Every structure is written in structure tokens, then in C-alpha cells.
Amino acid sequence: MTNIKDTPEHYYATQPKSEIKFGLIQTRLRGRPFEFITASSVFSVKRVDIGTRLLIESMALPESGSVLDIGCGYGAVGIAAAAFNHKLHVILTDVNRRAVLLARQNAERNKVPNVEVRQGNLYEPVAKLTFNCVLSNPPVSAGMKTVEALIRGATAVMASKATFQMVVRSKIGKKALPQIFDETFGNFQVSAIESGYRVLTGKKQ
């Protein structure tokens, strides 16, 4: 595989214009082996980043129903969720067309048939659906307005008692994010913390 560099300033672009260079990640998540094809202009091309890994290792999945991985990148979170529980229907979405194509390839590569990948901004691709769990490693580089829209828009696609689980760097939005969670869900908790990252969880009442 070609050596590639992260280009986070482009990973939330709809149509990346950079020359495409592929990579391959081989890793273990919750003790299970996974392989992910990556590419330039998609987030964290050399490894499953610390935040994504923390979310995967700590995420609380429903026993059945539907799960949304919003801003999926090459698909690590959603594919892992689908692999850990084949009863779930997992939909992955991303605004980045290159990421969407990679996520589809990676779902096949990891033999998880209970995955569907859609392209679009925020909740537009799943506006008429309802989920029991929403997971995200949000595109913080796109700005806090985008992160806030991602949080506040979640309840429209969440079933009663569904959870919203989002990983961020611990130093980001220390005061603002708990307030946004409280205003959106009426509750807030830090469900995991490690290596400068934390997983924030809200539950729809």
C-alpha cells in the first residue's frame, strides 16, 4: 500500500479533489480482527484513531433494532457494531463520497451483511427512519456549529429510550457540550474516558 498522509481539512468535503491513495489497516477491536481499506481525504488513514477506538470499545449497543453511525468515514464504528451483533441493522452515513465508497467495500471485506451505507449531510439520508442508537466520531474540524447540529438533530431520528453516543477530545467543548446535551436530551453523562478523549452519552426520554 502507498504511504499516505492524513488530510483532515478535506475529510468532510462532499467530493474530495485530492489524488486518491489507498492504505490498509489491520487491527483488533474488542478482541476481533478487522481490516479497513482507507484513502486520502478520509479521516485517520493510517490507523483506527484513539477516539474511534474508545467509542468502539465502550459503545453500548441495543440487543436488536437499528443503529446509525453518522459521519462514518471508512466505516470502522458502524462495521464493528454490525459485527458484534448481527441482529442489528446498521446504517452508515457520510457527506464524503470517497468515505461512502470505502465503507461499502469495508463492510464486504469484513463480511457484515447487516450494513447499509448512504451519502448525505447530517441526518438528511435517514430523515424518515428511527434508530435505537446513534454513534458518532464527529467532524470537529468542520466547526462546532456542525457538531452542535449533529447533536441537536439526533432526537428527530431516535426512538424512545434510544442513546446518542459521541466521542470527542476531552478538551473540546468542556462546558458547551454538556449544556447542549442537557438541552437536547434532558440528561448527559461521560460514559468512557481515556487518552485525552471522552464518550458523551445522552438518552432520549
Commentary on this structure:
With 205 residues, the chain is of the alpha/beta class. The protein has one domain: Vaccinia Virus protein VP39 (Rossmann fold). The protein has five helices and nine strands; from the N terminus they run ββαβαβαββαβαββ. It has helices at 50-58, 76-84, 97-109, 144-152, 176-185, and strands spanning 22-29, 32-39, 65-70, 88-94, 115-119, 131-136, 158-169, 189-194, 197-203. Strands 5-4-3-6-7-9-8 form a seven-stranded mixed beta sheet, with helices on both faces. It has a two-stranded antiparallel sheet with strand order 1-2. Helix 1 packs parallel to helix 2 (76-84). The radius of gyration is 16 Å and the shape is globular. The chain starts with 21 loop residues before the first strand and ends with a strand. The model is unreliable at 1-10 (pLDDT under 50).
List the helices and strands and how they pair.
Blueprint: E1 22-29, E2 32-39, H1 50-58, E3 65-70, H2 76-84, E4 88-94, H3 97-109, E5 115-119, E6 131-136, H4 144-152, E7 158-169, H5 176-185, E8 189-194, E9 197-203
Parallel strand pairs: 3-4, 3-6, 4-5, 6-7
Antiparallel strand pairs: 1-2, 7-9, 8-9
Helix pairs in contact: 1-2
